[in-house]
Amino acid sequence: MDKPRLAWAVTGSGHYIKECLDFMLTLDDVDVYLSLAGEEVLKMYGINLDEIRKKFSVYRDKSASAPPVGHFYKGYYHTLVMAPTTSNTVAKCVLGIADSLVTNLYSQAGKCRVPSIVYPCDIAPEMETTAPGGKVMVYPRKIDLEGTAKLRDFEYTTVVESVDELIITVKERLQSLT
Length: 178
Hints:
- This protein is of the alpha/beta class.
- The protein is 39% helix and 24% strand.
- It has a six-stranded parallel sheet with strand order 3-2-1-4-5-8, sandwiched between helices. A two-stranded antiparallel sheet has the order 6-7.
- α1 links the parallel β1 and β2.
């Protein structure tokens, strides 16, 4: 490893997933982590995993202990991005549950003091999102919004509310490393 990389986790949220991945594909030195639901959502949205594999290493949620998370202990990653992130993943992260590849990544990043940038799908009481058939309105539950609010208070965690803010925050983080 010449220099630390960025770990990018994709969960089962379709919330502006194409825009998130389009931005991710403009970056270098990224490893992609897919939850089981993340793989399903890529297919539902017609996103070809082969295109991502052409540029990045892809880790899939296939084992109980999620061995790739050990990379954090070796200084392999400078940042974890979780975008887009389901309310289920946010809730687990807030409760300290690390029972999947993505939640384990978040847990280990925090334990290693590696900053995380999280783009939750539930950020407002009423919002527009992307579904496989186009834009739709959604109305996140109070508990989902509370999870997002709690995540904002976690150390080494930055919560962003839009793709534009995600892009700015990731670019600022990368710039701070040079």
